[in-house]
Design goal:
The protein has 402 residues and is of the alpha/beta class. The chain folds into two domains: 201 residues, 3-Layer(aba) Sandwich (D-Maltodextrin-Binding Protein, domain 2), CATH 3.40.190.10; 148 residues, D-Maltodextrin-Binding Protein, domain 2. Helix content is 36%, strand content 13%. The chain contains 14 helices and ten strands. Strands 4, 5, 6, 7, 8, 9 and 10 form a seven-stranded mixed sheet that branches. α2 links the parallel β1 and β2. α6 crosses α7 and α10 crosses α11. The chain is globular. It starts with 15 loop residues before the first helix and ends with a helix.
């Protein structure tokens, strides 16, 4: 996410780059907040026909199971397009989208849908889902994904090069990233009484009973490891277990009160949480008057992406591919980026935003959306784990968070 003038005020991050990002975000979210009535609105704001019964083969509609607060929900004040991505797609293609916001946690979704259904050769209740990259890799390895017919997705050419050489899917034939982002810390300065800069602030006894972490192991454990001086990119079972020891003790001591998916947004809004492990774009979903700050800790933050994948045997595979192609048009991708505030995997988005001007051009200068060197140097992608190590580690983490 070129230097721009920002007016100093209390509550801005000490890091000037992140201060700029927060100022941009607050200006944009004020407009958007007034159009919203709460959190996780993806399903609530859709037209009734989008919430109709599941699609059937040949019906010209498909089901997309996605995370909450992860797509544009109205076009108020947008310089990048009129109508929403969903409404425009339906109008232009004639394909209806049953858009669900029921993907709240990778392991929960795996245990609820992927494993019991795909693992038995059955279909799940979605033609397209958006698991995080490591879960997408697991699904591909298990043989539970359909290969994307790239002839139906000519805009695959717009995929950023960094995603085309991943060891688990060279050429990106089984996934197309939806959005990418950063896990860092969100906090309320009114409750903390001071600026936060360190991953270790999650464990400050002053915030006992007001801290939440994510059920996403790599992000919660990753930030804890950073605070312990460990490398996330070179994660090993010993260091991970040391970090989980620290998290487990903090839970037992009452320091950490909840482990959540996107629900932490509600805790920030209600001021039940002073400090959270959080995802970068989520600040867009909150009333800027709350004054919530997002930081990449001085020790580091984790970098990730969620990937659109087609579950094995999907009834509406062709429609899902049509959707993939549509959202990989830079014009359409820019409209999503302007709303959600995450990192777009689509080439040309920044140029579209710059050309649009106004608030859209400000998004193009946000260092949490178009990551600059000052932020990037503090980010790491959680390292690969051996299969049995991952099973053991995830099992222990689930026990801690459950």
């Amino acid at each position: 996410m070129a230097p721009r003038p920002f007016h100093p005020r209390p509550g801005r991050p000490r890091d000037p780059e992140l201060a700029a990002a927060v100022d941009i975000t607050r200006a944009l979210t004020r407009r958007r907040f007034l159009q919203r009535s709460g959190l996780g609105l993806g399903a609530a704001l859709l037209a009734p026909n989008l919430l109709a019964a599941c699609s059937t083969p040949g019906s010209g509609d498909f089901t997309f199971s996605n995370w909450a607060a992860y797509i544009d929900e109205d076009d108020s004040g947008s310089n990048t397009g009129k109508g929403t991505t969903l409404s425009n797609f339906e109008k232009e293609t004639g394909i209806k989208v049953r858009y669900l916001t029921d993907f709240n946690d990778n392991d929960a979704y795996f245990n609820k849908s992927f494993s019991p259904l795909l693992g038995r050769g059955k279909k799940i209740n979605a033609d397209l889902t958006a698991p995080t990259y490591w879960m997408a890799a697991r699904l591909k390895k298990l043989g539970w994904l359909d290969e994307i017919d790239l002839a139906n997705v000519p805009n695959h050419k717009n995929l950023e090069d960094a995603y085309t050489n991943l060891a688990w899917d060279p050429g990106a034939h089984y996934f197309m990233p939806w959005q990418a982002g950063i896990a860092g810390i969100a906090y309320n300065p009114k409750l903390t009484g001071r600026k936060l800069t360190s991953a270790n602030d999650l464990f400050d006894p002053k915030f006992k009973g007001q801290v939440s972490m994510l059920t996403e192991m790599r992000d919660s454990v990753g930030l804890t490891m950073f605070g312990m001086g460990k490398s996330v990119a070179e994660a090993n079972p010993d260091d991970i277990n040391d970090a989980m020891d620290k998290i487990e003790k903090a839970k037992q001591d009452g320091q950490i009160v909840h482990f959540t998916g996107n629900e932490y947004l509600q805790g920030l809004e209600s001021q039940d949480y002073a400090v959270c492990v959080a995802w970068s774009g989520d600040v867009y979903s909150l009333d800027p008057d709350l004054g919530i700050e997002f930081i990449v800790p001085e020790e580091g933050g984790t970098q990730w992406f969620d990937a659109m994948v087609i579950p094995k045997g999907a009834d509406q595979k062709r429609d899902a591919e049509t959707w993939m192609n549509y959202v990989y048009d830079p014009e359409h991708a820019a409209q999503i980026t302007e709303w959600v505030g995450y990192v777009s995997p689509v080439k040309g988005v920044r140029e579209v935003l710059e050309k649009a001007g106004g608030d859209s051009a400000e998004v193009a200068e946000n260092p949490l959306v178009f990551i600059d060197d000052a932020v990037q140097k503090r980010l790491q992608v959680f390292g690969d784990l051996e299969q049995q190590d991952e099973i053991d580690i995830q099992s222990r983490f689930n026990d801690i968070t459950g």
